[in-house]
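Example 9 (inverse folding). The structure is encoded as follows.
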């Protein structure tokens, strides 16, 4: 069964089909502010989204962040342009999972998006350790 997520008010939804493998915690200037845990995939493959969103993008505009215009939750980011093969990268925010148990056991991948742009060593944490 796909993992499903929605914003707090229920206007924006995502589904993730398959095993995301990990959830990524990133320390870049935007992810550390949002506090997001990303599950990566491709538009219309692993990941489907629904609902009207507000979009935030900046800098060179490679990716756009989609928020619920009503309750403000950050639901997903998506590449502004498809890759050469026509597929578009996307990641959904695991914190919006409707059933926390569906993502609780995913290992956390720590990604240094602030300085080195590299994965950091595993520290044994899972999504369940990040809820609070
Ligand atoms: Zn909402």
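The amino acid assigned to each position is listed next.
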């Amino acid at each position: 069964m796909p993992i499903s997520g929605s914003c707090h008010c229920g206007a924006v939804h995502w589904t993730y089909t398959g095993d995301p493998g990990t959830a990524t915690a990133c320390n870049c200037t935007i992810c550390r502010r949002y506090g997001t845990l990303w599950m990566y995939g491709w538009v219309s493959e692993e990941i489907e989204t629904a609902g009207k969103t507000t979009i935030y993008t900046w800098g060179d505009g490679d990716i756009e962040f989609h928020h619920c215009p009503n309750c403000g939750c950050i639901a997903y980011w998506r590449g502004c342009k498809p890759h050469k093969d026509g597929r578009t990268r996307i990641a959904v925010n695991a914190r919006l999972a409707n059933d926390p148990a569906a993502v609780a056991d995913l290992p956390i991948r720590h990604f240094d998006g602030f300085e080195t742009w590299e994965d950091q060593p595993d520290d044994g944490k899972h999504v369940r350790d990040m809820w609070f």
